[in-house]
Amino acid sequence: MSGVWVFKNGVVRLVENPGAESFDGSRAGSNIRRKVLVHSPSNEVITSYAVLERKLSSLGWERYYDDPDLLQFHKRSTVHLISLPKDFNKLRSMHMYDIVVKNRNMFEVRDM
User: Fold this and answer.
1) Residue 74 counted as domain residue
2) What whole-number distance in Å separates Cα of residue 78 and Cα of residue 57?
3) pLDDT tens digits, residue range 71-80?
4) What DSSP designation does 66 have?
5) Among the listed residues 53, 48, 24, 26, the one whose alpha carbon sits nearest the alpha carbon of residue 36
């Protein structure tokens, strides 16, 4: 994982291709290598939140409905919380890597 760490509005995030993304988060280039989240055991690309929610539920994650702007999942046996933007099209690699880290050997991030 390479890139530039950007601190904005109290949040630190990794910009993987700093030439393609401006510091305000908008995409500047058109030749961006998109990433996809893949469920490793089934080799299935996660194409929607419905698919992701089914996979996470089978792993013991429960949906939280506290914040209307976010999709949040919590696993009772851990202190982990997965927070995702409400719009699947706004799902970025940092969200994908968060899912990967909290579900070892179950998901991976690949270039599209």
Assistant:
1) yes
2) 14
3) 999 998 889 9
4) S
5) 48
